[in-house]
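Most newcomers find our protein records easier to grasp once they have seen one. Each record describes a single protein and holds just a pair of labelled lines. A learned vocabulary of local backbone shapes supplies the integers on the structure line. Nothing more is needed to start thinking about how sequence determines fold. The record below serves as our worked example for the rest of this section.
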Amino acid sequence: MKILFALFFILVFEVQTYASELTIGLIPEQNVFKQRERYKPLGEYITKKTGIKIKFTVLSRYGNIIDRFVSEKMDGAFFGSFTGALAIKKLGVDFIARPVNLDGSSTYYGYIFVRNDSGIANVKDMKSKKIVFVDKATTAGYIYPIAYFKDQGVDNIEGYFKELYFAGSHDAAINAVLEKKADIGCAKHSMFDRVAKKNPAIQKELKILATSPHVPSNGLGLRKNIDADTKKKIKDALINMSSDAEGIQVLKKFEAIKFITTSKEDYAAVFDFAKKAGIDIANYKFVNK
């Protein structure tokens, strides 16, 4: 069985292929329907500019993207920073571009937050409270918080908190704290800000207790064996969007200013977080509870 899988891996990832259609995975950083709605105009734009049909598939879980990348023969994905690090180590993907956020940054950072009326001001106050993470394959929603708590002297997360669970998406984790389903939450700042724009109660009733260093925004990575011409067409279409009238309109819907070049070197901070959290990315296996 292992030999068959190895042969399958070589066939899918080593032999150079020329694409007229690409299947691109999307991680569930927000409600899957909203995620599909956000990316649909972008896919249509890339198809129009390159002649390469883009088919998006939205995953139900962050961590599924590595297994499903292989099993469903995906051609690429908009990886989060930690799933991107996993993809670099496990799949050898080539990263080509990532968006610049509306605030002018091409990165995001993690928040650890509570309600203003929670009485929680520091990690000591969090003991025996309920915490909500996003997914074990997210930087802001799990890897950074674990590294942060370890730095604060909390090595046994499950023993320190009364309860911990995984919301599955950043917006769900934010709303869980807002609605008092959890005392402490973890999420990426860009999603926190996006949700807060639509719901002012988030800024009014929640407060940030800790902020992580920056990591790269969700970047597009493609299989290493896709031909260089296809990769260049996709990359050029994304990079040139901000100088094209139609592209500018699509960027507005996508809530970004432009796309910029990205590469595996941009993920250094993610590997550092993982090391501090005691995680070996190359051999990282997990099951969300």
Notes: Confidence is low (pLDDT under 50) at residues 4-16. The longest strand covers residues 94-101. The CA atoms of residues 176 and 182 lie 6 Å apart.
